[in-house]
Amino acid sequence: MIYQSVTPILLVEQIEPSLFFWVGRLGFTKSAEVFEGNALGFVLLEKDQVQIMYQSYKSVQKDMPAVYERTIKEKSRAMIYCQVNNLE
Question: Count of H helices and E strands in the chain?
Answer without folding.
Answer: 3, 5
